[in-house]
Specification:
By secondary structure, the chain is an alpha+beta fold. 35% of the residues lie in helices and 20% in strands. The radius of gyration is 20 Å and the shape is globular.
């Protein structure tokens, strides 16, 4: 319940909240199977804070939601209860059910963002848009000096002859940006310049560098705002999970 509170607006459609609850439960079971403890050996599992799960306690939710706490919390509790024990499975095993806030028309395949592909984390169409997502478009600008400092901090040996060719992958995200003959991955550019996603365009001259960004998050797996639009279109939570996680079935975690 605390993770659903922290990860998805409680005002979202009930089927979207149920999809979120089931995705989070699936993620937990996947990590338990991996034995991920990292820096917290007394925990059941642990992943780095920059990964996928937030948490909002009841006390914090009461403070944040104020008069809306009772109805919104009831909806979150119902979403968790209505999906109790059910997860997304591939070949009978819980999947790495990652999710993100919003995509720019398509989600990213796992291999677009991380080191390898997974069959259920393919690139699929996603129905959110600027009309349905707050801050769907964002702009980040740096002086040329600021941009150079950030690039040199990440790549001290780089030869700064400024930005060159930009390539995109099949999901419309930046694959690489050529900087002084060095190809920097779009995901790394996102990290260096603190961009909301790797779906961006850039313009640069002798004075400044400007990024225009679409969507928010790594782009892999379920889009939360996409799930909201699918729920509004009448999709069930099971159908939403099957939309974003290719080839999965829904069943007990085991």
């Amino acid at each position: 319940v605390g993770v659903v509170r922290g990860e998805m607006p409680a005002s979202f459609e009930m089927e979207a909240l149920k999809a979120q609850a089931a995705a989070e439960r699936t993620y937990v079971y996947y990590q338990l199977a991996q034995g991920r403890k990292d820096a917290h050996p007394d925990a059941d599992f642990c992943t780095d804070h920059t990964c996928y799960s937030a948490y909002l306690s009841e006390t914090a939710a009461k403070e944040k939601w104020a008069a809306d706490f009772a109805p919104w919390n009831t909806r979150v509790v119902q979403a968790v209860a209505d999906t109790d024990g059910l997860v997304a499975l591939y070949d009978g095993e819980p999947i790495l059910a990652v999710f993100h806030s919003s995509s720019a028309g398509r989600t990213a395949a796992a291999g677009d963002v991380w080191s390898g592909d997974l069959p259920y984390l393919a690139s699929v169409a996603s129905p959110e848009s600027a009309d349905t997502v707050p801050n769907y478009y964002s702009t980040v600008a740096f002086t040329a000096a600021e941009a150079k400092d950030r690039l040199l901090a990440a790549y001290p040996e780089i030869k700064l002859t400024w930005f060159g060719t930009v390539t995109e992958n099949d999901s419309g995200r930046v694959e690489t940006v050529s900087v002084g003959g060095t190809d920097i991955e779009g995901t790394e550019m996102r990290r260096i310049f603190s961009l909301r996603s790797a779906c961006f365009t850039l313009t640069a001259d002798a004075e400044s560098v400007t990024f225009r960004v679409t969507g928010y998050g790594h782009g892999v797996g379920m889009s939360q705002y996409g799930a909201e639009q699918l729920a509004k279109a009448g999709k069930t939570w099971q159908e939403i999970l099957a939309w974003y996680y290719t080839g999965v079935t829904i069943g007990p975690a085991g």
